[in-house]
Structures are given as C-alpha cells and as structure tokens.
Specification:
seven-stranded antiparallel β-sheet, globular, 26% strand, alpha+beta, 118 residues
Length: 118
C-alpha cells in the first residue's frame, strides 16, 4: 500500500507536517487547518475516475488493469490508500486535490509538496 495524505493550512499558518500527519491519522482535529468540503472532493474524485468500478462509498478499483484506492476522510483531511496503483493514477489523484488547494504529504518520504517546502 502507498499512502497519500492531503490537507490545507489556514492563511499564515504552517505547522510541523509530520505532527499534523500523525494527528490526522488518529482522526484528531488540528488547529490551523481548513475544514474541507469533503463531499465535493469525493464527488470530484468519483467523476475523474468514472471509468473505474466504485466498490463502495470510499473505494475504487481499475476494471481494465491493476490498481485500487480507498479514500478515508476527516473534516480536515483526505487520505488515499493506493493498492498496486500506477504512478500516473496517483498523479491524477494529486492533481484532483491540487484543484482544492490541498498539496500532497507523502508520509513514505516524508515530505509535503507545497510552496513552503525547500
């Protein structure tokens, strides 16, 4: 599994990304993060992946090849667990979240890909 996590900071706020990640994984509210429009985001993911089979409310699998992903949300974050998913598919998910101004935090690296990163 490859994990992707997205959130958005309030203006003028920037916290320790690893600590934010750990709090969000524990489903905790983090002061300084924006409350996201989760339903709008999930609907957008569903429309971008309309040719994928929607297994349940939060899971999609590729009917024409390998790969599946599951979307797990809190009011402030979107976590996407990718299973055997190709890089181009993950990039598509990152692009969707960029539409909502939510840059990727990649806990495997660990690095957040936004303008504040060095």
């Amino acid at each position: 599994m490859y994990e992707l996590l997205f959130w958005k900071y309030l203006d003028e706020i920037y916290l320790n990304n690893q600590e934010v990640y750990e709090a969000l994984i524990e489903q905790q509210e983090v002061e300084g993060l924006v409350v996201l429009e989760i339903e709008v985001i999930v609907n957008r993911i569903n429309s971008v992946f309309s040719d994928w089979e929607r297994v349940d409310e939060n899971s999609w699998k590729n009917p024409k090849g390998k790969g599946a992903f599951q979307v797990i949300t809190t009011p402030q974050s979107v976590k996407i667990d990718c299973y055997g998913t190709e890089g181009k598919t993950m990039n598509k998910l990152v692009d969707v979240m960029e539409e909502f101004k939510c840059p990727l935090y990649d806990p495997q690296v660990p690095e957040r890909y936004d303008e504040m990163s060095e």
